[in-house]
Amino acid sequence: MTYLEETRAAYDTVAIDYAKTLEDNLAQSPMDRAMLGVFAEHVLADGGGVADVGCGPGRITIHLDSLGVPVFGIDLSPGMVAEARRRYPHLRFEIGAMAELDLPDESLGGLLAWYSIIHTPPELLPSVFAEFARVLVPGGHLLLAFQVGDERKRVEQAYGHAVSADAYRLPPDRIADLLAQTGISVTARVVRDPAHELEATPQAYLLARRDG
């Protein structure tokens, strides 16, 4: 089974319980809200739509929508997309893979990947970031969030279910270097300590902009 098939199956399995567990998480995460707010201000100032790539059940998509951002969600998992559509029927959610986005070149003013690059093997991240650069307009904004580290973790239990998938903890400097190689320059980076029981490692946010 490929990593995409494993990831899709895992999130299809946990979709409903994942959504229930995390539905109030953002209200308890001031740093998350702050970074999303900065991202929203940049996008609104420069214009253009935003794709929430790896949107899950849409909890961050709806938050950006509440800030006035024209946003839609994309997720690999049909189960997650179904849950997002059920919860937020007025928003657009599509099934898709971040390495092959079904979007025209230079069609987005912003792209959010909120803890969604963590299942991509690190050696494949350059092609993912090249895809992000392709769909962003010159000057378009990117926000990444991920767990800090440099290791692979095998996930076999999640949200009360048996699953089988890999998750990668990533070094922020290395991710910034990979983005730069695709023409995306990091403009701000924040690393914070774990804030609650669901977080075992420091958490990173990288705010970046496509060159040009």
Summarize the helices and strands and which ones pair or pack.
Blueprint: H1 3-22, H2 30-46, E1 50-53, H3 59-66, E2 71-75, H4 78-87, E3 93-95, E4 108-114, H5 125-135, E5 136-147, E6 151-158, E7 161-169, H6 172-181, E8 184-192, E9 203-210
Parallel strand pairs: 1-2, 1-4, 2-3, 4-5
Antiparallel strand pairs: 5-9, 6-7, 8-9
Helix pairs in contact: 1-4
Which keywords apply here?
Methyltransferase; two-stranded antiparallel ribbon; Rossmann fold; alpha/beta; single chain; 212 residues; 6 helices; globular; 31% strand; seven-stranded mixed sheet; methyltransferase; Methyltransf_Superfamily; 36% helix
Give a structural overview:
This protein is of the alpha/beta class and 212 residues long. The chain has a single domain, classed as Rossmann fold, CATH 3.40.50.150. It has a 7-stranded mixed β-sheet with strand order 3-2-1-4-5-9-8, sandwiched between helices. The protein has a two-stranded antiparallel sheet with strand order 6-7. Helix 1 runs parallel beside helix 4. The longest helix is centred in the N-terminal third of the chain and has 20 residues. It is globular. Pfam families: Methyltransf_25. Keywords: Methyltransferase, Transferase. This is Methyltransferase. One of its GO terms (molecular function) is methyltransferase activity. It comes from Amycolatopsis deserti.
